[in-house]
UniProtKB/TrEMBL annotation:
The lineage of its organism: Bacteria, Pseudomonadati, Bacteroidota, Flavobacteriia, Flavobacteriales. InterPro entries: Cys_rich_dom. GO terms for molecular function: oxidoreductase activity. This is Fe-S oxidoreductase. Residues 3-84, 127-221 form the Cysteine-rich domain. One of its GO terms (cellular component) is cytosol.
Length: 244
């Protein structure tokens, strides 16, 4: 299958190793992966700030770059959900519709499309899993704790096969970290306090790393950890799953 690798802006600019890990991981499972060089922002920051009417150029560019692929895969739940819910094109709505129906977050693609049940890897550390809101509540990557239903987690399913990895059970496993895109700018104090609370949960379980599927959330937590001079590190789940 032909897969278009969609890399969020902040990953491209600040954490390119996540894009590389995602590429290598998909290729390990036989995907023919391409990275369209003209891809830019999907438009999520503008839409989340109330300026969805300004995202037309982003939509057009996205369709032009990703319409030729069987699937579009992204190592970010929030960006994936934005495309899945909001991508349209006046010039080629059929192509936009195809993309909306075939865009997947990375762990979702591995479990639901490729049917991956286990991944060979080695990561001998104690890890806390931060499940971002868009991934959990929007894409249904894991069960929400307030629902009276059988628990599941696609990211945890993949992490469970990594040798040496000890995945802790957090007290409030699906609590928001406070990032929220532009929320962390407009409501800085609230955002920081939420992030501090999220980190405290991981601290109480003595984790070495906090991982997750959205580097935007992890970037927010990383900034707080640095200010606290904490030894806890953040790492995107793609990097763990691609470990040897």
């Amino acid at each position: 299958m032909k897969v278009g690798l969609f890399i969020p802006c902040y990953v491209d600019q600040f954490y390119p190793q996540i894009g590389i890990a995602s590429l290598e991981l998909l290729e390990k499972f036989g995907c023919e992966v391409s990275f369209p060089m003209d891809q830019t922002c999907c438009g999520q920051p503008m839409a989340n700030s109330g300026y969805a009417h300004l995202t037309g150029g982003c939509d057009t560019n996205f369709v032009n770059n990703f319409s030729e692929f069987d699937y579009v895969v992204c190592p970010s739940g929030s960006c994936t959900m934005h495309v899945k819910e909001h991508l349209h094109s006046k010039e080629n709505e059929a192509a936009a519709t195809h993309i909306r129906k075939h865009v997947y977050e990375l762990t979702e693609f591995l479990t639901d499309v490729l049917k991956v049940e286990s991944i060979e890897g080695n990561f001998p550390y104690k890890v806390g899993m931060h499940q971002s809101c868009h991934g959990q509540r929007g894409l249904k990557l894991s069960q929400m704790s307030e629902l009276n239903a059988a628990p599941f987690s696609k990211p945890n399913q993949l992490l469970s096969s990594i040798k040496g990895l000890e995945l802790v059970s957090l007290n409030r496993k699906d609590e928001c970290c406070g990032f929220g895109g532009t929320f962390c700018v407009t409501e800085e104090a609230v955002s920081v306090k939420m992030g501090q609370d999220r980190i405290q949960d991981h601290k109480e379980h003595n984790v070495d790393y906090i991982t997750g599927g959205d580097m935007s959330c992890l970037m927010h937590l990383e900034g707080i950890l640095r200010r606290q001079k904490s030894n806890i590190k953040v790492i995107h789940i793609a990097e763990i799953l691609n470990s040897i």
